[in-house]
Amino acid sequence: MTQSGVDVPPKGGFSFDLCKRNDMLIQKGLKAPSFLKTGTTIVGLIFKDGVILGADTRATEGPIVADKNCEKIHYMAPNIYCCGAGTAADTEAVTDMVSSQLRLHRYQTGRDSRVITALTLLKKHLFSYQGHVSAALVLGGVDITGPHLHTIYPHGSTDTLPFATMGSGSLAAMSVFEAKYKEGLTRDEGIKLVAEAICSGIFNDLGSGSNVDICVITKGHKEYLRNYMEPNPRTYVSSKGYSFTKKTEVLRTKITPLMERVEITEVGEAMEE
Amino acid sequence: MLLILWGVLIQFTIPIDNGDALKNAEADSQRTLYPYVTGTSIVAIKYKDGVLMASDMGGSYGSTLRYKNIERVKAIGKHSLLGASGEISDFQEILRYLDELVLNDNMWDDGNSLGPKEVHNYLTRVMYNRRNKFNPLWNTLVLGGVKNGEIYLGMVSMIGVSFEDNHVATGFGNHLARPILRDEWRADLSFEDGVKLLEKCMRVLLYRDRSAINKLQIAKITEEGVTVSQPYSLKTFWEFQAFHNPTAGAQGSW
């Protein structure tokens, strides 16, 4: 490290200063904390009038299911939604951040947000972090130029596709899409196909599970169908419910009103302007 | 063992087969560390009259599609069909072992012949034993057959994991074909429906597996015997409008 007399302001971007220290600690035997990953199936589909996004609802922490019913379809703009796979914190943070940037942009321009705006903002951010922000996204929406569907990879590359899948269950979902997708799907056919693809991920991939969330975006209108399908209900629920048989015995009752013991005195001047 | 001949040092290495392949450095060159020429997935299903097995005819050398005429599905004896994915040379070795097995069985000349269950068991033992010596046969094998009206379909992997099921898939087929088979397989599939189902799976594999080629064979085994089809190719569809000019509405994206 060179000793410089002038204080250099920190440059933007990722600071790699602590990487050497982390490597040294791992060599000494420290186990790095594991991330809450969403091991996921997320899909997107363009149909006749717009875009349909689908996602499962399981969040995993290694081999444990941390959240049985989390929300993976994030709001970006009234006409744009984004599904996220990868590290849950990364997808939440990145979509929230770009969502607020889009809102500010809407105030400034006075127009509805476009999908490629969201795409470029996300892509720029992810690329500058060189893949360390582990967020794989399926971005879909309908703007003035029509319906759009994009996938964004953690390193910052993007694809523009008529149908897309991401996450650990992406192969299972893609096999359904490749076998059954056709052009000019109606709304109901599209929803059915998306639900089928997510179910394929839920039942054939261990990182995905629980329920199916669907979001349908058309020109000027969006429908967020939370828990559209629940193919994994709790099988054995006791019909009796819970009840505690023995009631606690009351031995003595003593009520002390507190208000009489408190004296409120006005002291000091009013706050200075 | 060194031999000094006219001042020139010639070193002979005697292959040491003490089974300790892991620690012995010389034996390192004698055990399989990586596969070289590999075959991709095999997809097989039980249907009404027997077993249908589909595979493509490609052998990849790393990322090159080197061989395009490899038959990865072979008949074993009278009652079984063996398909293999993974290292092709190890598959050929397995065929040699099975040849010997079937020959010995025929020499007994007792009117009995090896059925698919027996061949599957033999293969499981061979694969597991080789794995224990850290010198595996780098294959995932699919064994199907019919004997005395009983339809059998099973699978053995390179580490010796073996099981039987109504439909199996190896390699990429695990991820792409299994979801389709789990959804659409039925016990009473006719021959045409079975072929259609297999073709559906092979088409998805053709689109999404980089080592797949569009030249496949479908083999059928029933009580009557084995038939392996001639190689043929699947119709693919690349004309989705949205793929023609995907970024037309999103200038600046690629």
From TrEMBL, chain A:
Active site residues per record: T40 (nucleophile)
Record carries keyword Cell division: no
GO molecular function, one term: endopeptidase activity
Keywords: Cytoplasm, Hydrolase, Nucleus, Protease, Proteasome, Threonine protease
Stored Gene3D superfamilies: Glutamine Phosphoribosylpyrophosphate, subunit 1, domain 1
Subcellular location per the Swiss-Prot or TrEMBL entry: Cytoplasm; Nucleus
Coiled coil, from the record: none
Signal peptide: none
The keyword Membrane belongs to this UniProt entry's keyword annotation: no
Catalytic activity: Cleavage of peptide bonds with very broad specificity
GO cellular component terms, A-Z: cytosol; nucleus; proteasome core complex, beta-subunit complex
GO BP terms: proteasome-mediated ubiquitin-dependent protein catabolic process
Entry similarity comment: Belongs to the peptidase T1B family.
Subunit structure: Component of the proteasome complex. Component of the 20S core complex of the 26S proteasome. The 26S proteasome is composed of a core protease (CP), known as the 20S proteasome, capped at one or both ends by the 19S regulatory particle (RP/PA700). The 20S proteasome core is composed of 28 subunits that are arranged in four stacked rings, resulting in a barrel-shaped structure. The two end rings are each formed by seven alpha subunits, and the two central rings are each formed by seven beta subunits. The catalytic chamber with the active sites is on the inside of the barrel.
Reported function: The proteasome is a multicatalytic proteinase complex which is characterized by its ability to cleave peptides with Arg, Phe, Tyr, Leu, and Glu adjacent to the leaving group at neutral or slightly basic pH. The proteasome has an ATP-dependent proteolytic activity. Component of the proteasome, a multicatalytic proteinase complex which is characterized by its ability to cleave peptides with Arg, Phe, Tyr, Leu, and Glu adjacent to the leaving group at neutral or slightly basic pH. The proteasome has an ATP-dependent proteolytic activity.
Protein known as: Proteasome subunit beta
Source organism: Brassica napus
Taxonomic classification: Eukaryota, Viridiplantae, Streptophyta, Embryophyta, Tracheophyta
Gene label: BnaA02g28940D
UniProtKB/TrEMBL annotation, chain B:
Pfam families attached to this UniProt entry: Proteasome
Alphabetical UniProt keywords: Cytoplasm, Nucleus, Proteasome, Signal
Coarse class of the protein's main subcellular location: cytoplasm
Subcellular localization, as worded in the UniProt entry: Cytoplasm; Nucleus
Transmembrane stretches, start-end: none
SUPFAM superfamilies: N-terminal nucleophile aminohydrolases (Ntn hydrolases)
Signal sequence residues: 1-21
Family indicated by similarity: Belongs to the peptidase T1B family.
Reported function: Non-catalytic component of the proteasome.
Subunit description: Component of the 20S core complex of the 26S proteasome. The 26S proteasome is composed of a core protease (CP), known as the 20S proteasome, capped at one or both ends by the 19S regulatory particle (RP/PA700). The 20S proteasome core is composed of 28 subunits that are arranged in four stacked rings, resulting in a barrel-shaped structure. The two end rings are each formed by seven alpha subunits, and the two central rings are each formed by seven beta subunits. The catalytic chamber with the active sites is on the inside of the barrel.
Protein name per the record: Proteasome subunit beta
Organism: Brassica napus (Rape)
